Amino acid sequence: MSKLSDVAYYVRSKNAGPFWVTIDIFCNNEESYKRIASSKKINKQLISKLYGADPENVKIFHMDDLKVIKISYPRFCPQGGKDERDMHAGQQYIELLNVEI
User: Fold this and answer.
1) Which residues have C-beta within 8 Å of that of residue 32, sequence separation ≥ 6?
2) What's the whole-model pTM score?
3) pLDDT computed for residue 85 by the predictor
4) 29 three-class SS
């Protein structure tokens, strides 16, 4: 099995406002996109396990035309809060890179 980092073209994370994080998985071809999307490995339960988010609050969008999978989940604490460790959420995607697809 391959890791997400081997199949996806680019993976990034960023703020989606002060209370949400979004992770984007970009694919550079239809084959890679379908492989990731159809694997069902990237799901609400996985995001919940990796990021401590309630699975009912995790949102996953498949944008077929763009060959992008977008994942959004509530932040552990609000952006800029005293317990915040990644204010811009730029490092959150790293947890997904080793997921087997």
Assistant:
1) 7, 8, 9, 67
2) 0.91
3) 73
4) coil
